[in-house]
Automatic annotation (TrEMBL), chains A, B:
Belongs to the D-glutamate cyclase family. Keywords: Lyase. Gene3D superfamilies: PSTPO5379-like, PSTPO5379-like domain. PANTHER family: D-GLUTAMATE CYCLASE, MITOCHONDRIAL. The keyword Lyase applies. This is Putative hydro-lyase EYE42_03075. It comes from Paracoccus subflavus. GO terms for molecular function: lyase activity. InterPro entries: D-Glu_cyclase, Putative_hydro-lyase, UPF0317.
Amino acid sequence: MTHQNPARLRAACRDGWSAPTAGHATGFTQCNLIALPRDWAWDFLLFAQRNPKPCPVLDVTEPGRFDTVLAPGADLRRDLPRYRIWRDGALAEETPDASAAWGEHPDLVTFLIGCSFTFETPLMQAGIQIRHIAQGCNVPMYRTNRDCRPAGRLSGPLVVSMRPIPADRVADAVTISGRFPAVHGAPVHVGAPDRLGIADLSRPDFGDPVTIRPDEVPVFWACGVTPQAAVMASRVPFAITHAPGHMFVTDIPDRNWQS
Amino acid sequence: MTHQNPARLRAACRDGWSAPTAGHATGFTQCNLIALPRDWAWDFLLFAQRNPKPCPVLDVTEPGRFDTVLAPGADLRRDLPRYRIWRDGALAEETPDASAAWGEHPDLVTFLIGCSFTFETPLMQAGIQIRHIAQGCNVPMYRTNRDCRPAGRLSGPLVVSMRPIPADRVADAVTISGRFPAVHGAPVHVGAPDRLGIADLSRPDFGDPVTIRPDEVPVFWACGVTPQAAVMASRVPFAITHAPGHMFVTDIPDRNWQS
């Protein structure tokens, strides 16, 4: 069963629904989330400014607030299907409700970051199959050997998502996703996973492996899980993020980001 | 006389050259500049994130530093043709060398913001005359009746630059500038200046008036002078900016920003 209405999907999350969001609420923008204590907000916003491909910021809350212009009425503490709580750079907990963790810090600043799920609908409309949707699993994501440009206390590797694309549709996938620069835009790498430091595509660092057919090329897009890799690499004392693939679904139509 | 080499233009500025930079160093990216005490940096970066059309941030310096990845070797305190020093939201001084003012605050964070001069070269290459370059004056800029989205202590009106465009080339001007979202992108308004609260195009708030011919329409782009309007409206205690039209010229080719 899929939820096609964003508000209803968020309400379902509040009631305990917890699954990857790709393929749900088709046509509405999904977001990565990271909430940090006010003291780390500058470092993170600067990190995002310096690494716009993996970290295109779509909204920033006021300190201590959990509402967003991207979905009036939403509660960012409860309206995602799954959260990760980070302590001293380590994953401490996964939970479908981050309210308790949110209560630990009165001044959390929350960043909502564009997600490549946004251009999956136009890719599918162009006849390009999105394998993880077809297989009903989470998109595969990989930590790469490319460093992000550091900012203040934050540094870490680029994380990418991967979609297998038929060789004769790679150019179309580049062109179509390139129209959405606010949600990662065009791929950062096509083929040659070893050059990104990815030894085995069947063992993603986040999400699930997908089938790659003989006529297909692995295509890599900058991924909004990059902030979580920075949280780990930089041993950030406290952070709340979405669980990879379990995004915040907004009321904003995907087409709003098309350039 | 025009300076076509960015490093030589910056050296000339250091030696006292002071004039609007439109038409100089053709093909190299020009930037708006605002330097603020560290305590105001978060408010400003958030203001820019919330108002990306007027404030597309291309680089942010470390606190107290005056170098930038956009032009290695440049000195941001001296390499612009003209600066404005702001105190308590009021223009205190215009100067070709901001070194002394820079010395007052050891923790200034400097923001370099995209400038619409970047897409003037492609517009001219498409056969569209840029009137202020043809007339050898500064681009006309206007304070509008549109408010920016506030951030922290910062608020203020949108400022726009205006170029008269022949009616049969307006679509081309939109398309061409729209390919440069990192430097203001497509216009925010075409024609109907009264709807922007501009009563008299011959009396710009910044820069110089230009001739508008009978077959031409005034076309308005979001402008990087918007931060200066926010400094005024928000009574920021201290800021250093470029003087309108007197930009920082980088080593980055304009085409790098083309989407």
